[in-house]
Amino acid sequence: MKLKTAWLTFLLSAAASSLALAGDAPLSELSGAAGSGTLSIPFATAPADNTRVAVSARYLRAAAAPIDAQATQAAKDLYAFLRAGYGSRIISGQTKNYFPELTAIAGKTPVVKSFDMQNYSPRNPWHDDWSSWDDGSVQGAIDWYKSTQGRGLVAFHWHWFSPSAGQLRKSTFYTKETDFDVSKAVVPGNREYNEVLRDIDAIAVQLKRLSDAGVPVLWRPLHEAGGKWFWWGAKGSGPCLKLYDLMYQRLTVHHNLHNLIWTWSTPEEDWYPGNSKVDMVGYDSYPGKYDYGSQKYMFNKLYRLTGGGKMIALTENGPIPDVEKCLQDEARWAYFLSWNKLVAEQNTAQHIRDVFAHPKVVTLESK
């Protein structure tokens, strides 16, 4: 994952040149269509033949460094790796669930492996005493990272069980399964405020285990908030964004955690925390089985939302977009991340093999 100084110097100078060249050009002029300016740069870990690809200036607008000024070197290296290939390659990914099965189908190994902090929530409704449960995800992530000598990437999301309220044997992260009020949880002194701090502190313990092991994390909290089907989005964007700020401050300042690449995955404009608070943006894509479209509409929407200043990923997907369509449509996602068994239910085995065999898709074997 480490990048040579010469490469980083080149990349940053190229990015600066592209920004000067692109100026405030509208999105349509940065799409890589015929007649638009492109730069030819190699992927950070280019193959032996030093394959070069044309990269539209639009991708080089992405911020050069993580938002956390105190980011660990491992987090900086992870971010630099993602940014170096952004627009030229698409990194493969899969949730922990169904990871070995997908690898067997594809004949190659995804680079990103995603885990869930769900069961570490202090109030776990799947235990009779509401206690948390170490399901092995954190140790599994550490083992994965070390077994790949740091070439495999670790992602975590958090299906945050309701800090209070709800019933046993119910998935209380869903709005319909709890009456926990997030608007009260962002008011200091409230019972709900203390409960969310308790929960964030519990997850901080797990994130520190990862940090102590030298593992940088693609951290994606409060996902799909704009859909309002999770309690953290149930009261609208205002309380949710305050909760995001509270979490960021609690983890980075109070707990001194700096191994996180902060990823936001809800596309609505009024739900966006802002470029100064987010490292990457993502879209959770479920268009229906065997729909291999590039999802260019959502890519362009997120591009406009961030002004091109953030890398854009498919943070969840059912169908994997056709790689050639992504390249042609200038919807070159930083990575895709297939969700559990849906990858087999919503993609044909041949399509999976074709995606993983594509020369512009990064697998663990090609990384």
Features:
single chain, 367 residues, alpha/beta, TIM Barrel, eight-stranded parallel β-sheet, two-stranded antiparallel ribbon, 11 helices, disordered N terminus
Chart the SSEs and their pairings.
Elements: H1 5-22, E1 38-42, E2 52-56, H2 73-85, E3 90-91, E4 93-95, H3 99-106, E5 112-116, H4 137-147, E6 153-157, H5 182-185, H6 191-212, E7 217-220, H7 237-254, E8 260-264, E9 280-285, H8 296-306, E10 311-317, H9 323-328, E11 336-338, H10 342-345, H11 349-357, E12 361-362
Parallel strand pairs: 3-12, 4-5, 5-6, 6-7, 7-8, 8-9, 9-10, 10-11
Antiparallel strand pairs: 1-2
What does this 3D model show about the protein?
The chain is an alpha/beta fold and 367 residues long. The protein has one domain: TIM Barrel (Alpha-Beta Barrel), CATH 3.20.20. The chain is 34% helix and 14% strand. The protein contains eleven helices and twelve strands. It has helices at residues 5-22, 73-85, 99-106, 137-147, 182-185, 191-212, 237-254, 296-306, 323-328, 342-345, 349-357, and strands at 38-42, 52-56, 90-91, 93-95, 112-116, 153-157, 217-220, 260-264, 280-285, 311-317, 336-338, 361-362. α4 links the parallel β5 and β6 (153-157). α4 (137-147) packs parallel to α6. The protein is globular and about 55 Å long. The relative contact order is 0.14.
Helices, by number, come to 11
Q: Mean pLDDT, rounded to whole units? A: 88
Instruction: Please report which band the strand proportion falls in: under 5%, 5-15%, 15-25%, 25-35%, 35-45% or over 45%.
Output: 5-15%
Structural class of the secondary structure composition?
A: alpha/beta
The main β sheet shows up as: 8 strands, parallel
Q: State the domain count.
A: 1
Distance between the termini: 9 Å
Give Rg in angstroms. Answer: 20 Å
Question: Biggest sheet: strands side by side, in what order?
Answer: 4-5-6-7-8-9-10-11
| CATH secondary-structure class | Alpha Beta
Order of helices and strands: HEEHEEHEHEHHEHEEHEHEHHE
The total beta strand count reads 12
Tell me the overall shape: globular
CATH architecture verdict: Alpha-Beta Barrel
Q: The CATH topology is what?
A: TIM Barrel
Helix fraction, binned, reads: 25-40%
CATH superfamily: Glycosidases
Low-confidence stretches: 1-52
